[in-house]
Queue: 2 jobs
Job 1
Amino acid sequence: MIMAQDQTDTSASDPDAGRPQHRIWSPGPSAGQANVGDRERWLSVIGGGAVAAYGLKRGGLGGAVLLALGGGLVYRGYTGHCPGYAALGMNTATDAPAPPEAYFERGIHVDESVTIDRRPWDLYAYWKDFENLPRFMDHLQEVKKIDDRRSHWVAKAPAGTSVEWDAEIINDEPNALIAWRSLGGASVDNAGSVRFIPGAAGEGTHVRVVLDYIPPAGRVGAAVAKLFGEEPSRQVRDDLQRFKELMERGG
């Protein structure tokens, strides 16, 4: 479920105007019209190969299931066609950002919080500089500022791969809220927000992070990520604990 309460309507403008469009896949023969994006296809092939290899190593019935799952992901990536997407009328082979209903239909929702013994404006200022995020978000490799509202993100993915996207700030309430979403062409469509809520009687700040994202292979992709130890709720929970430790020791 996307965070409508933390977002502003940006449909009237085109944030991607003038941005170069990258096509990184040379498609193989397709069993149907391509409806899977380029980066998603690469991830399907790489992740599927890793799952299949794990299935072969494991053996037995469970290994056979993983082998079949991995083979399906490899085929999906090679052909660029996903029958499940076709049945739902979905198409990620475009550079347009995911519509809000896509988050509801096939997205993953994370909602985690922590109380930190620092003032809201200290925490807000640190988080607002997105280049600080990889210091405590273990799944992020790098965030680079493009301008006052846009940034480029690189995150770890299963099997030693990475995913990239550009994001924009869509809501900014100084010392209280930052909300962002990915732009068109993202490897992983995502939207998130962080709230900084003063504690009662000056007892620290309650930091709440809400994240919605669409895994590259839908809910199957989330299962693959979990298999490789990258369960999203646990990730965000651990990230917030590192943020707490960093800020309480004067980060």
Note: The first helix runs from residue 38 to 58.
Job 2
Amino acid sequence: MFATAGSPEKCAACQRLGSERAINYHEEDFVAVMKDLTSGRGVDVILDMVGGDYLQRNLDCLATDGRLVQIAVLGGARGQVNLATVMQRRLTVTGSTLRPRTVAEKATIAKALREHVWPHLESGVIAPVIYRTFPLRDAAAAHQTLESGVHIGKLVLIVGQ
């Protein structure tokens, strides 16, 4: 598994969490690095939160029959694609978000999470990475931290403090 991040600290955090290699996209061309790391083959699946201008670059990282799963569009909802790349390498581009799903669909997902994910959280096999907690009255400071981009992990607001 490989990851991209925007600072040496975030790359190190990705590697501590199990990434074989984390690429600092401010310092390295992640497409070239991925091609090098996979001897030109590319990767089978990319889970992307950026979108926008990264769309074609992500496709360039995929192996033949690879899949790009778009789960957010932090870099913009539009991007240009060379469709010949998609067709010649039989690539699949898909995406998912919860907001437009029906209540019934969300209930099915919640049930699957309770069955397959919560037991791992309860046993400690997996755990969220918490960067910092804030009392609810300091929500503005939490937003400033979030916007700064320095955090590694989640920010948590504590109600009742």
Note: The chain is about 40% helix and 25% strand.
